[in-house]
Amino acid sequence: MEPFAASFLALIHKLVGSILVLFGIVLFPMPIPVGLIMIALGLAMLAPYFKPIQKLVRHIRRKSPMVDRNMVRFKDRCPKVIRTTIEKTNPHLHPEQS
């Protein structure tokens, strides 16, 4: 991929991920967990670009084996940016980072 196209795609991922997290926070109190799903998707889109978010997702995966199993289970069905997040936040490959 060309450098311009790659940087433009990264900008789109950051923008969409941020919007998902913000709207997810607003919708979080709703009875249906739409806000939680939006926050999770937004963090997954932002994680390949920000180390603190990778650390947060890795911590969540380490604390919840069910989340970790499901991320690994559905990895092949996800878009490339989400697959990158799953790989970069694997708690088994990065045990020294909490």
UniProtKB/TrEMBL annotation:
Domain of life, source organism: Bacteria
Regions that span the bilayer: 7-28, 34-53
InterPro entries given in the database record: Uncharacterised_PGPGW_TM
Keywords: Membrane, Transmembrane, Transmembrane helix
Name of the molecule in the record: Transmembrane protein (PGPGW)
Species of provenance: Parvularcula marina
Taxonomic lineage: Bacteria, Pseudomonadati, Pseudomonadota, Alphaproteobacteria, Parvularculales
